[in-house]
Amino acid sequence: MEEATNAPLFRFTTLKIGGEAGRLCNPSSIEETIELLDHLRKNGEPWHVIGGGSNLLVSSEGVEGTVIRTALITDIKQLDDTLLEAGAGARLPHLAKHAAKLGLSGLEFAVGIPGTVGGAVVMNAGAHGSCIANILESATVFDTKKWQLVTLSNADLNFAYRKSEIDPETQIVLSARFRLPMDKAEAIIERTQHNEDYRWKTQPLSWPNGGSTFTNPQPDRTAGYLLEQSGAKEFREGAAAVSAIHANFVINMGGATSQEVTNLLMRMQDSVYNKFDIRLHPEWKRLGKFSKTELGIWNGQH
Ligand SMILES: Cc1cc2nc3c(=O)[nH]c(=O)nc-3n(C[C@H](O)[C@H](O)[C@H](O)COP(=O)(O)OP(=O)(O)OC[C@H]3O[C@@H](n4cnc5c(N)ncnc54)[C@H](O)[C@@H]3O)c2cc1C
User: Fold this and answer.
1) Domain count of the fold of the chain
2) What is the pTM of this model?
3) CATH code of the domain containing 218
């Protein structure tokens, strides 16, 4: 298993922000992950799990304990005509294109979501009118409360908008099965390509970014719209700025710190609250050391 001590985490996030992890472990199989968890349990060491780091603000002050990165568990298998199984680390854009070539439909929405299967199940990632909940049959998870592998059905996961029942503090997603109806490969490839092209037109993909910063408070009043109307596109804190292309995207203009980003997030939240009386909630998860004031962004106390 690949592992390193004092590993800089900015390399493993799409925002390119994050201090050192005490230890970073990259298991490449389910067995290696369980062995690692056994070892950590024996030594009473704390751990955290990340996937592609595409929905994550990691503190520039670093992260204590071991970070388990499941991004290398990447196997994809076709189990029957319409059932695909993917390891937690399989990237959604790759999985979407792979499924399209096999003539399996349903993952077209995921081509522009740069996360892994594990993170996508946790977040119920979605776009273009669909989401993981629409295609997931089951997920295999190591549950550290029960200390065993469990298979959770779609119903068990209780999906909602950008939410599932998985608790990344105690459960690690290791693989997932997707039920995908058959269609003509050319048609699926065309829809997939259309969605990918749309991303390049509407998102600041040439800068390091973390995707949508806040969830949409209402389907017809998106966070992007509210932020744009509140003047947020002008906001910048140090090297962290609100994108001029999409007001719900924060970009790292080079060497931004998590502190600069949290200052920016507070301004963004305040501007929408002051104009619309609506409190935006971060879609991003956080990892590592944050001050009490910074944590207010996530717990509604800012
Ligand atoms: C350019 C861009 C566009 C995006 N577009 C979209 C979009 O259209 N729709 C959308 O929904 N999201 C979008 N995102 C956000 C992000 O890609 C998704 O939320 C994705 O599902 C996160 O997956 P990840 O592997 O990167 O998770 P991470 O960011 O690594 O982690 C996210 C959360 O999942 C947990 N986690 C990760 N892996 C595991 C695992 N194996 N087991 C248990 N817990 C785990 C982490 O602890 C954390 O709480 C976008 C991001 C970017 C940068």
Assistant:
1) 3
2) 0.95
3) 3.90.78.10
